[in-house]
Amino acid sequence: MDALTFLRNDHESVLGILESLERGRGAGETEMAKRDHLVTSLIIAESQHEAIEEQFFWPEVRSKLPDGDQLADEAIEQEDAAKRLLQRIHDSEVGSKEYEQALTEFIPAARAHIEFEQDRVWPRFAEAVSPAESEALGQKLATAKQTAPTRPHPDTPSTPGVLKTAGLGTALLDKARDLITGRRAHQPPTPPPP
């Protein structure tokens, strides 16, 4: 699967979770449990997605586009802000003021970031890479996602080298904690290819 199709599938999964969260803001026990499950799935999906983009996609944008450094820097700044919000959500009790405020801030920021990537970066990136390059990058992204962190880790530098080395150890710890706590059951579904 080519890189942009792979990333689009991830975006579709995240957008589906965001839509569900926007619809389900009730205060009952059932609604709170459902929201907590969805938010955990969102944190996992976003953590994995941003980690693999920062490892592989943004370095390619930097090398392939004349203003790739500027585009990648802007995207990573958005992603770092999102990680801080996700960490606030993760550290808060479902339904608490802090939780709801961070979630309310995260949803439009995530939508804006997805639009930035899809509207400003992807069309230009698609023109700058060959189909074979995009396929190879898509394979790297798919492989990296299997070992990507499942938590935001906002204090980890968003650089490819750090994420490919220290990030791997962090991801292994995340996955072990997920297995022990049952959080692994919240892994978001992978959408089917278009």
Description:
- This protein is mainly α and 194 residues long.
- Helix 1 packs antiparallel against helix 4 and helix 3 runs antiparallel to helix 4.
- The longest helix is centred in the N-terminal third of the chain and has 36 residues.
Compact description:
With 194 residues, this protein is an all-alpha fold. Helix content is 77%, strand content 0%.
The poorly predicted ranges are none
Radius of gyration, whole Å: 16 Å
Question: From the helix content, strand content and strand pairing, which structural class follows?
Answer: mainly alpha
Query: Distance between termini?
Result: 10 Å
- As a percent range, the share of helical residues equals over 70%
β-strand percent reads: under 5%
Outline the biggest β-sheet: none
Please provide the count of β strands. Answer: 0
Number of helices: 6
If you average the pLDDT, what whole number results? Answer: 86
Shape: globular
Q: What order do the helices and strands follow?
A: HHHHHH
Could you name the key traits of this structure?
mainly alpha, single chain, 194 residues
Helices and strands, with pairings:
Layout: H1 3-23, H2 29-64, H3 68-91, H4 97-128, H5 131-145, H6 160-181
